[in-house]
Amino acid sequence: MRPWAPAVLRLFDTETFAQIDAVTYPDLDIEEAFDLVSPDGESLAFIGSGGFDDPPRLFVLTNPFDG
């Protein structure tokens, strides 16, 4: 069992910073995520790591907020 909570992707309003939506990824085994981008609006790409001993990996997911 991993020592941290499941990864959560949150969508915020850019003017009020209020959370609009959130999606939990229980099988995404990362502790930190960096450089989130949406190159085409339909996908999300980011660099993630499971901690100090885990090398960074590139993740590409379907954008759950597209549409």
Helix content: under 10%
Low-confidence stretches are: none
Q: What summary fits the major beta sheet?
A: 3 strands, antiparallel
- Figure out the total of helices: 0
Tell me the fraction of residues in β-strands, as a range. over 45%
Terminal-residue CA separation: 35 Å
Strand order of the largest sheet: 3-4-5
Q: How many β strands by DSSP?
A: 5
- N to C succession of SSEs: EEEEE
Helix-strand category:
mainly beta
Mean pLDDT: 89
- Taking all Cα atoms into account, the compactness measure Rg is 13 Å
Q: Outline, from the CA principal axes?
A: globular
Please give a handful of descriptors for the protein shown.
67 residues; two-stranded antiparallel sheet; 5 strands; 0% helix; globular
Layout: helices, strands, pairs:
Blueprint: E1 7-12, E2 19-25, E3 32-37, E4 43-49, E5 57-62
Antiparallel strand pairs: 1-2, 3-4, 4-5
